[in-house]
C-alpha cells in the first residue's frame, strides 16, 4: 500500500514510520522536517500535498494540537486554535483526500484518552478529541468505494510520560508498541467508524 | 431559581418555558422574538446578554444549527457554520456566563442523538454534537463554586417527526414531555459532566 503519514517526525509518527515501512510504501509528511510538507491548518496546503503525492491507499494522521492550560484564562481564540489544528486540520485531510484515495482505502485519525477521561487544563483537548471521534463516525456512513475511516485514541504514551505525566495524575502510560497496534488495526484491518482505544 | 432560557421560542424551548415558568423565574432569550435577544455566533452579543440579565442560577441552551446535507458537496465553510453556531455558540454561553452564574448554578446545553447514531447528510451534526458533549465533560471538572454542567442529547422529537422523520430512518420519535424531563434532571438535579440521553 501507498500510505501517507502526516506527522511522520513526531513521537508516534517516527515509530509508525519504521513499522509501516517494513511492509508498505510510506510517504512521510510533516510541517517542516520532511521532503513533503503540509500545514494542516490550511486547506490549500493540504490540497497541494495531495496533488504532490497523487493516488494513495491510506492516510494516517498523527498530528494536531490544541490549547492546554487554565480554564479561567482560556479565550475563544484559544479554543479555535485546537479547532483549526487537531480538529479541522485532521478533518480537512479527509475531506480533501477522499477524491484521490483508492478504492477500499482508509483514513486513520488521532484523538486521545482525554476524550473520555478529562484532566485539569484539558477541556480544549477533550472537546477536540470528541469532535474528531464524532466526525469519524459520521463520515464512516458517507465515504464511498469501500473507503474506511477510524480514530485511534491513545492514552498517555510511555515516551511522553516523563514530560507530560504530571499533568495526567493516575493515567497509566501506554507502551508505544501497543499504540502502533491501534493504527495497524485501522490501516490493515477491516473496521470503519470506530474509535480504537489504546489505554494503559 | 432565575433561569436564562436561550432558544425560548424554538420547538423544545416553548415547552420548556411553560414547564419551568411554573416553578422558576425564567428569562426567555432568543435570536429575534424575545425582549432579550442574542446572536450565539457572536461572543460580544452573548456578553451583552449576560450584562442585561445579571446574576442567574441556571442557563439552558436549546439553540444552535449545523450544516445538514450532501457529504460530497460539503465545504470547510459548511463545517464552520456548525462550529460557530451549535458548537462554539453554546460553549461561549458557558465561558462568558461562568462569571455571573451563582454558586451551585448549572449550565444545560443541547447535543443530540446524531452524536452516536449517524444518518446520511448528518456528519456536521455528529461532529458538533460530540464536541458539545466533550466540552461538557471537560468543563465539568473545571467549573468552580459548585457550578454544574450537562448536555441533554434528545432523539428525534415527536413534534419534529413529520418535518424531519424522512431523514432519520428507523429513529423512534421521542415525546416532548420526555425531552423536557432531561432538562429538568440537569437543571433541578445533582449531576454534572453527563450526557443525558433522551431517546425513543
Automatic annotation (TrEMBL), chains A, B:
Q: Which UniProt keywords apply?
A: Oxidoreductase
Cross-referenced SUPFAM superfamilies: NAD(P)-binding Rossmann-fold domains
Q: Which family does it belong to?
A: Belongs to the short-chain dehydrogenases/reductases (SDR) family.
Protein name as it appears in the record: Short chain dehydrogenase
Q: What is the lineage of its organism?
A: Bacteria, Pseudomonadati, Bacteroidota, Cytophagia, Cytophagales
Amino acid at each position: 500500500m501507498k500510505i501517507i503519514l502526516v506527522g511522520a517526525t513526531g513521537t508516534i509518527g517516527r515509530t509508525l514510520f519504521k513499522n509501516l515501512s517494513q511492509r508498505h510504501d510510506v510517504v512521510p509528511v510533516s510541517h517542516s522536517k520532511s521532503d513533503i510538507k503540509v500545514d494542516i491548518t490550511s486547506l490549500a496546503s493540504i490540497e497541494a500535498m495531495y496533488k504532490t503525492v497523487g493516488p494513495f491507499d491510506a492516510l494516517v494522521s498523527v498530528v494536531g494540537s490544541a490549547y492546554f492550560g487554565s480554564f479561567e484564562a482560556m479565550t475563544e481564540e484559544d479554543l479555535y486554535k485546537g479547532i483549526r489544528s487537531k480538529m479541522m486540520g485532521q478533518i480537512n485531510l479527509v475531506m480533501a483526500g477522499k477524491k484521490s484515495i483508492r478504492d477500499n482505502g482508509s483514513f486513520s485519525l488521532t484523538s486521545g484518552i482525554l476524550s473520555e477521561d478529562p484532566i485539569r487544563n484539558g477541556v480544549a483537548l477533550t472537546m477536540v478529541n470528541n469532535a474528531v471521534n464524532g466526525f469519524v463516525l459520521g463520515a464512516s456512513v458517507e465515504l464511498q468505494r469501500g473507503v474506511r475511516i477510524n480514530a485511534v485514541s491513545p492514552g498517555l504514551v510511555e515516551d511522553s510520560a516523563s514530560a507530560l505525566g504530571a499533568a495526567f495524575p493516575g493515567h497509566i502510560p501506554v507502551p508505544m508498541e501497543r499504540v502502533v497496534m491501534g493504527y495497524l488495526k485501522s490501516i490493515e484491518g477491516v473496521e470503519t467508524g470506530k474509535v480504537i482505544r489504546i489505554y494503559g
